[in-house]
């Protein structure tokens, strides 16, 4: 038989799947598993969103739409960018896709060629490197102390070569919860302009901030807006992960190519979900704030419990719904000394011994870390953190 294409041969399956699959198996067998692995809100979509979907089904008109999304939704996205981000985008600058992930994928496909390099700071969302490779480019990682998610201008400059095409920014950050300050973004912007780079600004957790405020990279100047693809969606803020609606604002030449590519791959995003997303953007702010407050309460509980655990270190998450914990103190423990991937072995052991599902940091480029999600009820957060501290105490005794 003829060989398979080498183009995607090096793309890895998501490292989060093994732990979540085992956690699911244990749950189905009747085990009491606390899930700190989830990357999605544990809330229902707002009532206005659900009602809009039901009404659209009843009224009909759920056939194909324009590949880039229905005009009314793109207009709502344009108003959202202006209202929340101080960004002016025309209708043709906006592309609605099947999730923010597809926006990122499309953008990388139209920007990159074989031989290009794309800068990715660690820790990074698990799919960034694989999407870069799928576009034929090479991911280049910016290593920072203790897995911090901010980018220092010097570290950014040092990583740039003549092949560097773009930089991926993610604020608020998954997995660390870091929120970039205006000063940090301006320092990055100066390097971006000097080195003539594109920027993919992933802002999907924009509305889930507990300390500080969100600043869109493209809003810093007209020059930066002209080289930035701003990516967002309704999944996290409106608890609409399965509805699969993301959107991007980009310079028109880039947006038109993204729309053209999409027209030959998925075509339009789900029509019903587009109308539901329109309702979310127009009337979902109260539900977003209620959810944000609930996440903040859970975040504080996690931080309070960990404050008494001297063996662990972490960066206080100011956004998203994750806590990225440094577990490096136990790397030499007999249970993990021979493991190829320390954090994977740690997460597997934690699941088997305490029935806690968490994501190993190696999935985000930091093998000394563990990601704990507080996208679960306050009661389960408290139960899980009691188990987690019990587990750490046992490790300390060896």
Structure description:
The chain is built from 13 helices and 13 strands. It has 398 residues and is α/β, with parallel strands linked by helices. The chain folds into 2 domains: 17-44 and 286-393, Alpha-Beta Complex (Aspartate Aminotransferase, domain 1), CATH 3.90.1150; 62-283, Aspartate Aminotransferase, domain 2. It has helices at 17-28, 47-59, 71-85, 100-111, 127-134, 153-159, 182-195, 222-225, 252-263, 271-283, 285-306, 342-354, 378-397; strands at 34-35, 94-97, 117-121, 138-142, 164-170, 198-202, 228-233, 246-249, 313-314, 322-326, 356-357, 359-360, 369-373. The longest helix has 22 residues, at 285-306. β6 (198-202), α8 (222-225) and β7 (228-233) form a beta-alpha-beta unit. α2 (47-59) packs antiparallel against α10, α3 packs parallel to α10 and α11 (285-306) packs parallel to α13 (378-397). Helices cover 41% and strands 14% of the residues. Strands 2-8-7-6-5-3-4 form a 7-stranded mixed beta sheet, sandwiched between helices. The model has no long low-confidence stretch (mean pLDDT 94).
């Amino acid at each position: 038989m003829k060989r398979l294409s080498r183009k995607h041969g090096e793309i890895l399956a998501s490292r989060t799947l093994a732990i979540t699959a085992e956690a699911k198996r244990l749950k189905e067998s009747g085990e009491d598993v606390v899930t700190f692995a989830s990357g999605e809100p544990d809330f229902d979509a707002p009532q206005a969103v659900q009602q809009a979907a039901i009404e659209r089904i009843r009224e009909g008109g759920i056939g194909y739409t324009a590949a880039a999304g229905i005009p009314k939704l793109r207009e709502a996205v344009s108003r959202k960018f202006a209202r929340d981000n101080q960004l002016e985008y025309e209708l043709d600058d906006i592309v609605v896709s099947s999730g923010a992930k597809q926006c990122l994928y499309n953008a990388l496909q139209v920007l990159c060629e074989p031989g290009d390099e794309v800068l990715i700071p660690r820790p990074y969302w698990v799919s960034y490197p694989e999407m870069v490779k799928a576009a034929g480019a090479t991911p280049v990682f910016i290593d920072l102390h203790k897995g911090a998610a901010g980018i220092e201008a010097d570290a950014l400059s040092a990583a740039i070569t003549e092949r560097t095409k773009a930089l991926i920014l993610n604020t608020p950050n998954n997995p660390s919860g870091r929120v970039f300050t205006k000063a940090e973004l301006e320092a990055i912007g100066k390097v971006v302009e000097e080195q003539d780079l594109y920027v993919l600004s992933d802002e999907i957790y924009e509305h889930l901030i507990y300390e500080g405020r969100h600043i869109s990279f493209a809003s810093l100047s007209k020059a930066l807006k002209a080289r930035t693809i701003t990516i967002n969606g309704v999944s996290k803020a409106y608890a609409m992960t399965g509805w699969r609606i993301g959107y991007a604002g980009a310079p028109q030449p880039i947006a038109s190519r993204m729309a053209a590519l999409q027209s030959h791959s998925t075509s339009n995003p789900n029509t019903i979900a587009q109308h539901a997303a329109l309702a979310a953007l127009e009337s979902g702010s109260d539900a977003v704030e209620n959810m944000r407050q609930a996440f903040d309460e859970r975040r504080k509980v996690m931080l309070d419990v960990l404050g008494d655990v001297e063996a662990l270190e972490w960066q206080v998450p100011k956004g998203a719904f994750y806590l990225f914990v440094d577990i490096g103190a136990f790397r030499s423990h007999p249970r993990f000394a021979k493991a190829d991937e320390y954090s994977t072995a740690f997460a597997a052991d934690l699941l088997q011994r305490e029935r806690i599902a968490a994501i190993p940091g190696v999935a985000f480029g930091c093998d000394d870390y563990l990601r704990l999600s507080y996208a679960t009820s306050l009661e389960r957060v408290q139960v899980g953190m009691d188990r987690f501290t019990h587990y750490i105490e046992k490790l300390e005794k060896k």
